[in-house]
Specification:
The strands form 3 sheets. A 7-stranded antiparallel sheet has the order 3-2-6-9-10-5-4. Strands 1-11-12 form a 3-stranded antiparallel sheet, with no helix packed on it. It is globular and about 50 Å long. The protein is α+β, with helices and mostly antiparallel strands. The termini are far apart. The longest helix is centred in the middle third of the chain and has 9 residues.
Amino acid sequence: MPPPDPASFRAAMAGLPTGVTIVTANGPDGPAGATANAVSSLSIEPMMMLACLDRGSRTLLAVQAADSFGISVLHAGQEPIARTFATKAPVAEKWSGVAWSDRDGIPAIDDALIFIACDLRDVLAAGDHVIVTGEVRALESRPGEPLVFHAGQYRPLS
């Protein structure tokens, strides 16, 4: 098999459906957030999560400054929020018109299916991204249909 190139790797990974989350933190300039689909539970004992953030992300800087982060799992009706937080727009623009609240010192997207508050544990360099791990300190969840990203599009699970 020939080695993959970045374009074929990206195309192949587009076939892997993922949940859509917003990773958040309170940084020195206020709330920061970024859309992330590379988010996963990591451990049950202790309860831990991981999230992958772009090396140049303002949200990564906020996570490191705050020593904590939140993960809001979006529902099928929150595609506009996912699109807004996926941009490199100024921080204030991302939060404009978005219903959110401070939970345990971390910005949380209101009405999300799940919100997980984490204390930062590890920051690991990995290619053009950084893996952050965190120990879960608070959790809220409710039933509903998650927003999924697949084949380059946001879509409901069903």
